[in-house]
Amino acid sequence: MNILLLGSGGREHAFAWKIVQSTNCTQLYVAPGNAGTETIALNVNISITDFVAIRDFIIEKNIGLVIVGPEEPLVKGIVDYLQTQPETADIPVVGPSQLGATLEGSKDFSKRFMQRNNVPTAAYETFTVDQLDAGLAYLDKQSLPIVLKADGLAAGKGVLICLTLEEAKTSLKEMLLDQKFGEASSKVVIEEFLEGIELSVFVATDGKNYKILPEAKDYKRIGEGDTGLNTGGMGAVSPVVFADEAFMAKVEELVVKPTVEGLAKENIPYKGFLFIGLMNKDGEPQVIEYNVRMGDPETEVVLPRIESDFLSLLTSIGTGTLDSYELEISPNFATTVVMVSGGYPGSYEKGKIISLPETITGAEIFHSGTGRNDKGELVNQGGRVIAVTGTGESMQEALSNAYTVVKEINWDLAYYRKDIGMDILNLM
Hints:
The chain is an alpha+beta fold. The chain has helices at residues 10-19, 51-60, 71-75, 78-84, 98-105, 107-116, 132-140, 165-176, 245-265, 299-302, 310-319, 395-406, 422-427, and strands at 2-7, 27-32, 42-43, 63-68, 93-94, 124-128, 146-150, 159-162, 187-192, 197-205, 210-212, 217-218, 221-223, 227-230, 235-238, 272-281, 284-291, 333-340, 363-367, 370-372, 378-380, 384-392. The strands form six sheets. A five-stranded parallel β-sheet has the order 3-2-1-4-5, sandwiched between helices. It has a five-stranded antiparallel β-sheet with strand order 12-15-18-22-19. A four-stranded antiparallel β-sheet has the order 6-9-7-8, with helices on both faces. It holds the Pfam family GARS_A. This is Phosphoribosylamine--glycine ligase.
């Protein structure tokens, strides 16, 4: 069949890489794609939020399956739109409804959903600008550190961990009064800080059935030793050694089952991926947040470990037949190191020419913020530019394979962390 994949990041390049391995893929289109997806699929210059153009393209190219990579079109209702158009109503789409996407689009909605469905999560309260005084008074009664979250989408940057009461009060005012994160912080969730080790669990669901995909751990901060500003992700590893069989059994029973059952019970249409940010707190799972799509760069370590046909997984999600899909997962390790533009997550220069190695072994290169200049040369166009995923029978081998390739990729002011996975190695 002909397939349309929406998005332009490393996640979408990894999706494309996995999809084209299937014999059922006739032609893959990626809108808008990047310089990596253009080597294995046909890029289409359509915005991920131009719903009319997307619908017209689906009709023109006889698309049989649509996969929505990023959260923005989901939160804006792309699935609902396509299902209300006569020509596209019957075409399977991998991605939740607009209501389902509110699990990521609104932290307050998400927390209330967890409470209703007895999903373990941190204690919280939500405040608007009209409730600023109540919010400040609430902070006076909380233990430190305390977490402040912008209610809406803030490109992964709307979460603040405040170590002092003064910092928390100043941050709350900046978010509500000064709109530090724009419309996203018109509501702020104040949340108990959870101690423990963080990980991400990924679930594929057709709204009734589910499959738990390989778990992963990502590295958010720009500096080594997890220091500095938060980013969209500087690397990831899978599997995660502190997520043993007993812990994952608790995750399934206490988090995954009540979440999927809650979606069905509350009539929230959901055919897609659920990314569950978790804290392992003394062997007990606590949900930090839901995301309504696969993570980036976690996708780049999760997909290489899926051995069964990935396009069949996507099709079974979209057609509501996930119960018949046999998921096969490799026991091998996958590790991703993200290379970024110098200055990221602050300001950075674009258009730097990128040099890639001619041959690589034991690794894959996934493009994120890449493009072509007027001469057709590969250049950086975003903050996170390249994700290199190494695989191996041990984490040490996977890391070695990844870093060997990273060292052969060059552009002016390129930066990457040199300690991805080292904390996990120390636990092994």
